[in-house]
Structure formats: C-alpha cells, structure tokens
Amino acid sequence: MKTTIAAAGQTFLDIALILTGSADAAYEIAKENGFDVSDEIPTGRLLSYTGEVLSQPVADYYSANGIRPATYNKGDYTNT
Fold first, then answer.
1. Phi-psi region of 78 (alpha: psi -120 to 50; beta: other; left: phi over 0)
2. Which among 3, 12, 31, 78 has the fewest CB atoms less than 10 Å away?
3. Comparing C-alpha atoms, which of 21, 15, 2 is closest to residue 68?
4. Is the pLDDT of residue 6 over 90?
5. Closest Cα partner for 72 from 20, 28, 35?
C-alpha cells in the first residue's frame, strides 16, 4: 500500500502522479479514499492506494526530486 498526506491545492490527478507515476489511477485513488475524483481534498488528509504503480520511472522521479504538484485552482471561471 502506498500513502501520502495531501498538501494544499492537490487534486487526485496530482496524487495519482505522486503515488503511481500516472494520472490514470486518479479515479481509483479517489474511490478507494471515499471521494469523487472532482472533490477537493482536505489539506493534511492521509490518502492510501493499494493498486499498482503504473509508471515506476515517473513515480521514482517525483519521489527523488521532491515533486509534489498542487494544481487545484478555486478561481472564478466566468465567460467573457
């Protein structure tokens, strides 16, 4: 099992890249932790994933370089 603590502004796509090296696992990680993939993740929440690493080189790169993406933007998206 892989675990991480969610940082401010992280999405399940970010978490999937950190834990598995691929955004493809985002839906499974969200579901496994009782969320929908589009839910905002509370800062400090422990998230776990029992599935497989999908791209070991990417996961290793993120880990070795301390990369912790946080792409959530709660901005106002209005049409102009």
1. beta
2. 78
3. 15
4. yes
5. 35
Three-state DSSP class for 3? strand
Show the tokens assigned to 53. 């690493």
What is the distance of C-alpha 1 from the center of its chain? 15
CA-nearest of 45, 17, 51, 54 to 32 is: 51
Q: 63-78 pLDDT, tens per residue?
A: 999 999 999 987 655 5
Q: Please list the residues that pair with 47 across neighbouring strands.
A: 4
Q: Which amino acid is present at 57?
A: P
- State the Cα–Cα distance between residues 15 and 28, nearest whole angstrom: 11
